Amino acid sequence: MLVILGFLIGFSIHHGVVAKRTLSLHEVLNLVSFANAEEAKEKKILYWTCGMHPSVKMDKPGKCPICAMDLVPVYEKGAGAADAGALSTIELSERARKLASVKTDVIGYRSLAKDIYTVGLIDYDERLMALVSAWIPGRIDRLFVDFTGTEVIKGESMVWLYSPELVSAQQEYLLALETLEKVKESTFADVKNGATSLVDASIRKLRWLGITEMQIEELRKNKKTKQHTIIYAPISGIVIEKKGVGR
């Protein structure tokens, strides 16, 4: 015998298997009554109930007062389970199961997926964006990236900028280096410390103006000011907006 939970439509469970019905619940219940008629003669009927509303209990056959479906019998061997608070069940004989075209499957965990089609807005992730701008007033004499959509690599040249303020900052740094070189043999500690502080201050100013460590080191070695400075790409990516215009 296969036990089907009375409140489920289209499924039944018994001893670790799931049963799928191809007929409606009303049709299956009618088949149950027909196929189990002979077997029911030898069993004691406790009461009559509705497969859709197990709370309905009648002492004789008839119609469910809620949904008007035919009542089905509950036999003596199911009374203990019902009294213990278990779900009411309906039993199908082998013949009834064949008439109802019941198929079984093993119970298990399965992944469920559902495609959802909707509308929305797509925007850039601000955490992955970088703004490339000059830290000093000046003039763009050349723009290496001249249109949006260009792919750039971190450290790649983007802007060739002329700035009188930057030229002055370079000259101050070279002058501070020259002064430190002259007083490095001095026996006066205050003089040497003052020259060293002047060099450090000049380096900090260059950094504040956007000059990289590599450019500062190149200036220290060559000891020549540059009329133009290059602004490099801070990250790799694609240019999505361009406001600067080169000459």
Automatic annotation (TrEMBL):
Q: Which top-level group of life is the source organism from?
A: Bacteria
- Name the keywords, alphabetized: Transport
Q: Name one Pfam family in it.
A: 3HB_CusB
Q: Does the keyword Transport apply?
A: yes
Tell me the GO BP annotations in alphabetical order. Answer: copper ion export; plasma membrane copper ion transport
Signal peptide start-end = none
Annotated GO CC locations? outer membrane-bounded periplasmic space
Tell me one GO molecular function of this protein.
transition metal ion binding
Does Transport show up as a keyword for this record? yes
Give the CusB-like three alpha-helical bundle domain ranges: 165-226
Give all residue intervals belonging to the Heavy metal binding domain: 47-74
What protein is this chain from?
A: Uncharacterized protein
Where does this protein come from, organism-wise? Candidatus Brocadia carolinensis
